[in-house]
Amino acid sequence: MKKIGIFFGSTTGTTQAIAHRLAKLLGVADSDVYDVSTVAPSVFDGYDVLVLGSSTWGSGDLQEDWYDFVDGAGAIDLHGKTIAIFGCGDETMSDTFCSAVGKLYEKFRPTGAEMIGAFDADGYTFDNSGAFIDGAYVGLMLDEVNHPELTDLRLRKWASGIVSQIGA
Question: 4-163: what CATH class?
Answer without folding.
Answer: alpha beta
